[in-house]
Amino acid sequence: MTQPDLPPPAPEAAPGPVPARPTAAGPPGPAARHPVLERVADLARHVAPGVLAVSVTVLRDGRLHTLTTTGPGAALLDEQQRTRGGGPSLDALTGGRTVTLTPADGAWTPGFARVAEALGVQQVLAVSLPAPRAERLALTLYGTGAEPLSRPPVALVEALVHVAVDALRPTRPRPTTPAHRGLRAQAAVAQATGVVMAAHRCPADEALALLTAAASSQRRGLDEVATAVVADVSPG
Predict the structure, then answer these.
(1) Model pTM greater than 0.85?
(2) Is residue 72 classed exposed, middle or buried when 0-12, 13-18 and 19+ CB atoms within 10 A define those classes?
(3) pLDDT interval class at 120 (50, 70, 90)
(4) CATH code, domain carrying 202
(5) How far is CA 232 from CA 218, 226, 229, in A?
(6) CA–CA separation, 220 and 207 (whole Å)
């Protein structure tokens, strides 16, 4: 299927110096790959300047499990939360809310604070939603920049969390009634809007306008273009 002809994504910020690494070895990476979640995490890493790393975690049986990360820094910080039983991702998962933290908030555990300082992490944004096969799923951004992550990126991250949650849903035969087709089309447009928002760092109305323009120029339905955009998030 021909992919929609959308404008190129916004240029990425130039990478800063590599932060100091803690001396302790990090935990092993996830045993199983989740291509869609990896793509979602990679998109989330570019929603704002200064995002060092991103992790996708779930809450199962009251415990934090990391499904994927964009680098060892996120894995180390996730491991600190797992061993200490607290931290922003766990707070978002257990509280069912969006969490933004900085060292000045005084809510970082000593172990988490030490690793964050070694990595240059100055703020954290964690967004969670209920998820299939788990109690909740969280997308956590670890940032090194001075610009608060709680401003424009929250809506973008929430949209990506919806895509990640949908990726965990078990595959089932799709009903073919007009009502179900309409619901699937709406879901595809909503998910594609989130993907475009993250890729282009734009608000929802602008992302929807880009999708609509692509559909018009290609003489395709908006839901067809949206489905192609969402499918492109998953390699292969």
Answers:
(1) no
(2) middle
(3) very high
(4) 1.10.10.10
(5) 17, 10, 5
(6) 17
